[in-house]
Amino acid sequence: MFHLDEYVGIAETHPASFRRYLRERIVERVHPAAFHFLAGDAADAAAECRRVGALLEQRPVDVAFVGIGENGHLAFNDPPADFTTEEPYLVVELDEPCRRQQLGEGWFASLSDVPRRAISMSVRQILKAREILCIVPDARKAQAVRDCLDGPVSPLHPSSILQTHQRTTLYLDRDSAALSSRAAAACGKA
Length: 190
Known about the structure:
Layout: E1 5-7, H1 18-30, H2 45-57, E2 63-66, E3 89-93, H3 96-104, E4 117-121, H4 123-127, E5 131-136, H5 142-150, E6 168-172, H6 174-177, H7 181-186
Parallel strand pairs: 2-5, 5-6
Antiparallel strand pairs: 1-4, 3-4
């Protein structure tokens, strides 16, 4: 298993650490044979990208579990996302809407506490997975879902790239699907 994204400068002990979240909720319960974590607190984030990227390039990915951010990001690939790089992992700048989402989710006390950079699996790497399962709950993501499904594929709406993948399954709730005509049609409500 490979870690999708992590904040730069966050220790695993921080409540917002995705490494901590994955260890507590998946690794310690499922006990996979191997889980390759991203060390957000590594001294050199670019070197950490290369380290985990080299491991990932040796193994095909069967299933990618992803979500869509309020700003339409896929992993931490905020708009405008890089749709061309073949690097498995990137150090990315988090835009203010992304940082505000992280604050709103309650992991940080103030916007100034939310990191400005993260390590993220690249868009092209996500698309290399044989299957993509994308889970998107909540009304606050309805506009991003509409942009993903109903608009053109565009780096300005990073999750829209999922339209190009042959085996993507999107799991929405009523609230997140509320603005999308394609989601309504798929549910027989158009």
